[in-house]
Amino acid sequence: MTTQSLLDRAAGGGRITAAEALELYVDAPFHALGGAADAARRERFASAADLATYLIDRNINYTNVCVTACKFCAFYRAPKHADGWVRDLDEILLRCAEAVDLGATQIMLQGATTPTSGSSGTSAHSPPSRRRTRRWRCTRSGLPRSSTSVVSPGCRTTR
How far is CA 7 from its chain centroid? Predict the structure, then answer.
């Protein structure tokens, strides 16, 4: 099957396999792939075909010090590692303000599983607990409103 016939099928809302999706990702011209994706979106959501939404998001890591040592993570550093760091609250708020200035509509604080769920002794603020991630929505005034979402143990995604 040719790349063009795969694009045509996908644009028409037809199903494609994982192998075919990979083929399109690797071989299809960028704008043709985007056009096919837009055509499929317009067909699937015909009642709102001219409406596409987005948000401007910023993820702010408050620490890379972690005790979990997940096999997929190249980001973490063990406690007391020379390259470990914890951002102080002023740095976090500065990054929030930068995001708001750039038009952010959502900010998510994320970090590693810290050695303790309270104050780690390495920062002026207490990091979120091991099972929680803090999501801040910045208002136009730049003052964050906080809400906490529970995550499952060992998982960094919210439910």
Answer: 28
The percentage of residues in the chain with a pLDDT greater than 70, rounded to a whole number, is 72
Counts of helices then strands in the chain (DSSP H, E): 4, 4
**How far is 123 from 62, CA to CA, in rounded Å?**
10
Rounded Cα–Cα distance for residues 125 and 121 (Å): 9
Of 55, 50, 60, 3, nearest in space to 26 by CA: 3
* Predicted local confidence at residue 81, as pLDDT: 93
* Average pLDDT of the residues of the chain: 77
Return the domain boundaries, the chain.
3-48, 57-150
- For the ranges 72-86, 89-103, 137-151, the lowest mean pLDDT is seen at 137-151
